[in-house]
What does this fold into?
Amino acid sequence: MLIPCPHCGTRPVEEFTFLGDAAPTRPTTSDPSSMEAWYEYVYLRNNPRGPIDEYAHHSGGCRAWLVVQRNTETHEVFGAVTARDFSKAKDAKA
Amino acid sequence: MRYNVFSLIRNSFSGHKNWEPAWRDPEPRKEYDIIIVGGGGHGLATAYYLAKEHGLKNIAVLEKGWLGSGNIGRNTTIIRSNYMLPGNNPFYEWSMKLWENLEQDFNFNAMVSQRGVLNLCHTDAQRDAFARRGNAMRIDGVDAELLDREAVREMYPFFDYENARFPIKGGLLQKRGGTVRHDAVAWGYARGADQRGVDIIQHCEVKGIKVENGKVVGVDTNKGFITCRKLGLATAGNSSETASMVGMRLPIESHVLQAFVSEGLKPYIDGVVTFGAGHFYVSQSDKGGLVFGGDIDGYNSYARRGNLPMVEHVIEAGVAMIPSLARVRVLRSWGGIMDMSMDGSPIIDKTHIQGLYLNAGWCYGGFKATPASGWCFAYTIARDEPHKLNAAYRLDRFRTGHMIDEKGQGATPNLH
It folds into this structure.
């Protein structure tokens, strides 16, 4: 797999450390009433077969946190943006 | 027909042309009492024990591919019960005990070979951890021996004991661990289940699960709708997809794990050796090929094939431990899809839907668990309550904080 890093250009997969699905949203409170939201955020995953947005750290390169769009069934990589841009776009949608 | 020396002699006189098929290939009926989704090791074992231990009839196993086409055919065939935590060890030891009598039990040669599993340690701290693990195993009645460096050297003189990064300091040996002919496990369970009346239906993909008033009533398949009273899901690797048919989200990610086999060699490594610090383990098959593997690739995948960087990583680690491996040629590599659960431990439990049972989250360790998984899942389905051996493998343990965190690393799907 080759990942198009927005800073470094196309780089091989071994330079990246994957954190997993970028879909879960971290709860903004630690209030006990938010336990269910925390449980979902920490443990539950959609685990899609197909396209996924996932966090990847360019640990062997620019060390930026990215969000890579990839297909989990075919390993096709569609693109990558910085995690910052991904969050901004997500917030704008919400 | 039972397989024994007399049936072998009898059939040899007719040129081995009159052996009966080991199992039937039936069309599905409209209705079953119990349906198991997934005709791999765990699903077939579950059906076998449902029929044998609980005397139940009218059971079907639905398999979307061919029998044993999942991880039962894609693993590295190792069995062991060297776990530490109370929720794990009695379960895996029960699995080992079932392995020890499996061939007599289901009358099929699964080539169970208790050739010993040795975990290498490289630091004093790791040796302390192994001593602790070994003691925990012995408390549960499992065999464990802590070896010093010279004892390991006597077993395997050709390892690199003076490796600069990972000098070998000793190891933890479980002599009862070993290997099993993996496909034969699926075939033996399939034959045993079939003889007890279980319908094994291949190329029958479940497309949907029908629930009415909180109760399972049947499944939609490519061979039509089939009614059932109880439904067991044993689809590890694909559990999230299957569970999503009833709107459940699981604490599981699917990852790819690669394995490799070398060209055939003369007898070289007679046991199983793991080099955990370097992510490498190896054994030698009866055909002579070295069977080895390492860690998951590290990204979500359903692809059943990995990438080359992990191939390189595993082989580097192998050559670091056994320098003479450098001249061995690799024949094949393949990948299997693992249900990586969030604490590294499996799930065998009821669900919030009446009549729906879940067997999932096996991480790397599904093969060795096959007999006990089937045995416990059968018990859970038949009695509608978990056996005490799988009582800790609850689905809700992540919500309640009762995780079985064998590695002590908290919630990540990257655990063993």
